[in-house]
Amino acid sequence: MSSGGSGSLAIIVRSDNPESVYPALIIASTAASMGVKVEVFFTFWGLRVLVKGGIESVERKLREAIGGEPRGIPPLSMLLEMARKSGVEIYACSTTIQAMGLNEGNLIEGCPIVGAATFVHKHVSGGSRILVF
Amino acid sequence: MGLRLKPSLSVDARGYMCPYPIILLSLSIKNVDEGGVVEVRATDPAFERDVISWASETGHEILELNRSGEEIVALIRRVK
């Protein structure tokens, strides 16, 4: 175990269920805080998180599942902000955007739209660890 | 015990669970000069182990790590 923080992590989020979105962003922000380069790619139902109002919808789902306010866990909006402040980059899947009849204007700020080739080039060829939620 | 180290910055993560205490520490340590000390107070029981892992990865130095009841207090020196 040594210092310096290294490596890169690519996270694919394909669901907007709280059990996918929260752990994905918790791992992402923590890894970034430890010096790992992190990118999160939202695709299929995961893309809903990036649609305006989507974060609130995931938070609502969690409250419903728990039956009240979740204790101790930061709100998803705060988690996303902390992730970004820590250096996590967020990407939106172009094919999903097209399939759902959306455009960049429907998304929250700061989510570049990319396709599979960008992901493969950056992460598969580049040897990142890849996590799928 | 020597002189009590005086932190350059104190952050309060009490009441918040993972990843908040670590992220708060990580963001805060950027605001002190090299050699400066950040004090973190947390009640997440995982913080005691997590801060050791975080320091091991980032290279920052844990000067003190104490638990008193539910509260964990860590003093971390910014190394680089």
Give me the secondary-structure topology.
The complex is a heterodimer of chains A (133) and B (80).
Chain A: E1 8-13, H1 18-33, E2 37-42, H2 54-66, H3 76-85, E3 89-93, H4 94-99, E4 113-114, H5 116-124, E5 129-132
Parallel strand pairs in A: 1-2, 1-5, 2-3, 3-4
Helix pairs in contact in A: 1-3
Chain B: E1 9-13, H1 20-29, E2 37-42, H2 47-58, E3 61-68, E4 71-77
Parallel strand pairs in B: 1-2
Antiparallel strand pairs in B: 2-4, 3-4
In short:
The complex is a heterodimer of chains A (133) and B (80). Chain A contains 5 helices and 5 strands; from the N terminus they run βαβααβαβαβ.
What does it look like?
The complex is a heterodimer of chains A (133) and B (80). Chain A is of the alpha/beta class and 133 residues long. Chain A has a single domain (8-132), classed as Hypothetical Protein Ychn, Chain: A. Chain A has five helices and five strands, in the order βαβααβαβαβ. Chain A has a five-stranded parallel sheet with strand order 4-3-2-1-5. In chain A, β3, α4 (94-99) and β4 (113-114) form a beta-alpha-beta unit. The longest helix of chain A has 16 residues, at 18-33. Chain B has 80 residues and is an alpha+beta fold. Chain B has one domain: TusA-like domain (Translation Initiation Factor IF3). Chain B is 28% helix and 32% strand. Chain B contains two helices and four strands. Chain B has helices at 20-29, 47-58; strands at residues 9-13, 37-42, 61-68, 71-77. A four-stranded mixed sheet of chain B has the order 1-2-4-3, covered by helices on one side. Chain B is globular. Classes of the chains: A alpha/beta (133), B alpha+beta (80). Chain A binds chain B through residues 1-5, 26, 29-30, 33-35, 72-74, 79, 82, 85-86, and chain B through 15-20, 22-23, 25-27, 44, 53-54, 56-60, 79.
